[in-house]
Amino acid sequence: MIIYKNLEEIELVKKSALLVSKTLGELKKYILPGTLPIDLDKIAETFIRDHGGEPGFLGMYGFPNSLCISINEEVVHGIPGNEPLKNGDIISIDCGVLMNEYYGDHAYTFTVGEVKEDIKKLLEITKESLYKGIEKLKVGNRIGDVSAEIQQFTESHGYGVVRELVGHGLGKSLHEEPDIPNFGTENTGPKIQNGLVVAIEPMINLGGKEVEQGSDGWTVITKDRKPSAHFEHNIAIINGQPEILSTFKYIYDSLNIFSSEEDEFHNHFS
Question: DSSP labels for the chain?
Answer without folding.
Answer: -B----HHHHHHHHHHHHHHHHHHHHHHTT-STT--HHHHHHHHHHHHHHTT-EESSTTGGG--SSEEEEETTEEE-PPP-SSPP-TT-EEEEEEEEEETTEEEEEEEEEE-S---HHHHHHHHHHHHHHHHHHHT-SBTBBHHHHHHHHHHHHHTTTPEEPSS--EEE-SSSSSEEEEE-SS--TT-SSBP-TT-EEEE--EEESS-S-EEE-TTSS-EEETT---EEE-BEEEEEETTEEEE-S-SHHHHHHHT----TTGGG-SS--
